[in-house]
């Protein structure tokens, strides 16, 4: 495996999701750069940061899918759960002294791009429609009150974060 390169076919057209996906690619590329490093402490930090950011991304995405009423939100969440279990297992092997950097890089690299192309692209239409309707409703509401409408995800992030904090299953899984 080599450095991952973002290509246009990976874009969902949902700005925040694409930004998060690109950040995951950056973490995976950092892991690639450190995979043969004798510095286990640096590698440990990158693995932990990658796992933590992946958890955060999944929670955000799942919250957005639920709010959008995506009919396959449950199965999509299950795919995330299974992937997290696999990553936690690899992370635990690393903490036990095993050299897993190359394996983890390969797993993350293959899984991320495949997941984006085959799973995430399926929900795009539903989420875009939801975001359009949300923005239109906010503009109308703000216009009626004489205020400015916030754009993009600013208005739904607090509600998604509230839902994330109530879930906790992923945080508990990572703390094992």
Question: What structural keywords apply?
Answer:
176 residues, Four Helix Bundle (Hemerythrin (Met), subunit A), 6 helices, 76% helix, disordered C terminus
Please provide the count of β strands: 0
The structural class is: mainly alpha
Largest sheet: none
CATH topology: Four Helix Bundle (Hemerythrin (Met), subunit A)
Distance between the termini: 29 Å
Strand content: under 5%
List strands and helices in order, with pairings:
Blueprint: H1 15-34, H2 40-68, H3 73-95, H4 101-145, H5 157-167, H6 169-174
Helix pairs in contact: 1-2, 1-4, 2-3, 2-4, 2-5, 3-4
Write up what this structure looks like.
This protein has 176 residues and is mostly helical. The chain has a single domain (8-174), classed as Four Helix Bundle (Hemerythrin (Met), subunit A). 76% of the residues lie in helices and 0% in strands. It is built from 6 helices and no strands. It is elongated.
Summarize the structure in short:
By secondary structure, the protein is mostly helical. The chain has a single domain (8-174), classed as Four Helix Bundle (Hemerythrin (Met), subunit A) (Up-down Bundle).
């Amino acid at each position: 495996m080599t450095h991952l390169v973002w290509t246009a076919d990976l874009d969902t057209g949902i700005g925040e999701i694409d930004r998060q996906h690109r950040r995951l690619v950056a973490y995976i590329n950092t892991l690639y750069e450190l995979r043969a490093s004798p510095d286990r402490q640096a590698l440990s930090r990158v693995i932990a940061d990658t796992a933590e950011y992946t958890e955060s991304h999944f929670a955000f995405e799942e919250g957005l899918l639920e709010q959008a009423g995506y009919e396959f939100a449950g199965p999509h969440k299950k795919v995330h759960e299974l992937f997290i279990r696999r990553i936690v297992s690899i992370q635990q092997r690393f903490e036990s002294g095993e050299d897993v950097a190359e394996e983890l890089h390969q797993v993350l690299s293959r899984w991320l791009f495949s997941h984006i192309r085959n799973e995430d692209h399926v929900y795009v239409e539903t989420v875009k429609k939801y975001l359009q309707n949300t923005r239109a409703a906010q503009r109308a509401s703000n216009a009626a009150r004489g205020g400015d409408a916030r754009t993009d995800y600013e208005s739904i992030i607090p509600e998604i974060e509230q839902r994330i904090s109530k879930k906790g299953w992923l945080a508990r899984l990572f703390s094992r």
